[in-house]
Amino acid sequence: MTPKIVQTYNALKSAGKAFEVIFATSDNDEHSFKEYYAEMPWLAFPWKDGRIDELSELYEVEGTPTFVSPLRSTNLTFSVIFRNRKE
User: Fold this and answer.
1) What is the mean pLDDT of the segment spanning 55-80?
2) Which residues form the Thioredoxin-like fold domain (predicted)?
3) Structurally, how many domains does the chain consist of?
């Protein structure tokens, strides 16, 4: 999954699209988080950041990976792109 997202991310950034991906980990240990995040060109919340739990609750995250796209930065309207997808 991550290589496909990285490829899409890089293509959109190269095309000048205004967006950002922010990784919110559910890893149980910091080493696993750092190892997995090393493959990613985007931003991430620090491991064990309290905002991760808040976002998981807000967007009803029940498993990984879940990809959420807020539609506006001024309200809580959002779209869940996919949940628990492994491909």
Assistant:
1) 71
2) 2-68
3) 1
